[in-house]
Structure to design on (295 residues):
């Protein structure tokens, strides 16, 4: 079992625990704002399950039907998360509208607020784990789950403070108003998650900083070649696919050209984990004089 899959199992356990705590807070108070917080936790559990499934599929080795691997399965998980976030936001909007039309006094508000804060602390701690793991393991599924959980933490803090203010001031309309604000915040986070995943599914290029790192590695390890050009790179989940053309002197033997390619590939793989490098070797007259200069 990979580290990413272990963390995904942890997300499910934390999500179920937080859902139970938030549901208790809503049951004690009758607050529609706290209900919206609990509804978002249902989405957290569902998306954690989706992320686990995607990570298990992405970990399957390349085969005859999928020679480039199954890494993009993680992006489908992130898109599903975005869709489920939108569904949760619409459900919350419906509850908020009903409560706004018929406002009511809250029951046991302080005990409910304290319980909801406990859920927020637990969510916040796990959010940090997910965001760090997503960066360390280059996992879109874990990163998307972490960003989604971060919005849940922020909205939980706002909801808790707002419910406390509604109790202190007697402004009962604040409760459904806060629920509506949570729904808008959730919608925005859903758009951010989907937008990032679409870029991965559309084979969006890696960042300029990553491309520059690749150019430097090629330039420093291509001694004997003339130049390199047409560098392209994309991410697919945790994997990075890199390809470029390497121009060598016309009289160079195939074996010597292959040695240069091996040296470049080893240098890149030492710096960029889980990458696949494809190098197209060309004779000297194919040089464009606009690519990567060999040091």
């Amino acid at each position: 079992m990979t580290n990413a899959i272990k963390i995904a199992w942890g997300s499910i356990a934390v999500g179920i625990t937080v859902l139970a705590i938030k549901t208790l807070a809503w049951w004690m108070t009758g607050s529609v704002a706290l209900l919206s917080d609990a509804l978002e936790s249902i989405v957290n559990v569902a998306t954690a399950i989706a992320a686990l499934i995607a990570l298990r599929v992405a970990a399957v080795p390349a085969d005859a039907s999928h020679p480039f691997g199954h890494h993009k399965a993680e992006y489908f998980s992130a898109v599903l998360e975005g869709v489920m976030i939108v569904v949760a936001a619409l459900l919350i909007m419906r509850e908020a509208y009903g409560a706004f039309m018929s406002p009511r006094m809250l029951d046991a508000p302080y005990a409910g607020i304290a319980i909801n804060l406990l859920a927020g602390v637990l969510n916040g701690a796990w959010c940090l784990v997910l965001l760090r793991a997503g960066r360390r393991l280059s996992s879109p599924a874990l990163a998307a789950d972490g960003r989604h959980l971060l919005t849940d933490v922020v909205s939980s803090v706002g909801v808790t403070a707002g419910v406390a203010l509604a109790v202190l001031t007697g402004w009962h309309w604040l409760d459904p108003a806060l629920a509506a604000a949570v729904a808008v915040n959730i919608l925005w986070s859903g758009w951010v998650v989907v937008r990032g995943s679409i870029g991965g599914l559309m084979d969006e290029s890696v960042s300029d900083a990553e491309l520059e790192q690749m150019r430097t590695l090629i330039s420093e390890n291509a001694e004997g070649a003339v130049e390199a050009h047409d560098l392209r790179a994309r991410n697919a989940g945790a994997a990075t696919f890199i390809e470029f053309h390497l121009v060598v002197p016309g009289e160079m033997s195939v074996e010597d050209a292959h040695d240069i390619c091996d040296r470049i590939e080893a240098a890149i793989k030492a710096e960029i984990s889980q990458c696949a490098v494809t190098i197209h070797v060309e004779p000297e007259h194919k040089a464009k004089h606009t690519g990567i200069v060999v040091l």
Observations:
- The chain has two domains: 3-201, 208-293.
